[in-house]
Specification:
- This protein has 170 residues and is of the alpha+beta class.
- It has a single domain, classed as 3-Layer(aba) Sandwich (Aminopeptidase), CATH 3.40.630.30.
- The chain is 26% helix and 28% strand.
- The chain contains four helices and six strands; from the N terminus they run ββααβββαβα.
- The chain has a six-stranded mixed beta sheet, with helices on both faces.
- Helix 1 packs across helix 2.
- It is globular and about 40 Å long.
- The chain starts with a strand and ends in a 30-residue tail after the last helix.
Length: 170
């Protein structure tokens, strides 16, 4: 069932933007595949997507305005050895025509609410300091920058589906 969020578009505008946020589950695999194809340009493998969507610890969200897909995000609940868990926001994307209109904020708000409802310790995301839009967005939504000199190392599998392996630049 969609979660309806309404945002006011500025102090002087009287319009309200209604953003529907849907969490997709395995029965929604076809709709999720449509969203992924629209935003990534690659058709997902439906059986793998269905498995991903079936896991309670996986969050695949899509944002729509007037029945048009305008953004998506996915995140993973990560259990910790101390019995707590946290939510890792892996990816968020908004159609260029709808950026800076509250869509990403609505997606993040859904995840923050889910983390609160499931007693997760925190929501976290990794962003490149050179990604000005991401740093600005996460800073404006109340995120706390931790580990100012931390570096994220990525070790892709030699069997990665895209055929790439070894060191790569981002």
């Amino acid at each position: 069932m969609p979660w309806l969020i309404s945002f006011s578009l500025g102090d002087t505008e009287a319009r309200t933007l209604n953003i529907d946020i849907s969490r997709f589950r395995s029965e929604d695999a076809d709709a999720a595949a449509t969203v992924l194809l629209q935003f990534t340009g690659r058709p997902p493998l439906l059986d793998r997507l269905t498995t991903f969507l079936a896991a309670d610890s996986h969050y695949f969200l899509a944002a729509s305005i007037a029945d048009e897909w305008v953004g998506f995000a996915y995140a993973y609940e990560l259990p910790r050895p101390d019995g707590t868990s946290m939510l890792f926001l892996y990816s968020i994307d908004v159609h260029p025509d709808y950026q800076r209109r509250g869509v990403a904020t609505a997606l993040l708000s859904y995840l923050r609410r889910a983390a609160d409802e499931h007693d997760m310790k925190e929501v976290f995301v990794i962003a490149s300091r050179s990604n000005d839009a991401a740093v600005s967005f996460y800073g404006a939504t109340g995120e706390i920058v931790e580990g100012g000199d931390s570096v994220c190392f990525v070790y892709p599998s030699h069997n990665a589906p895209d055929g790439k392996h070894g060191l790569r630049s981002r």
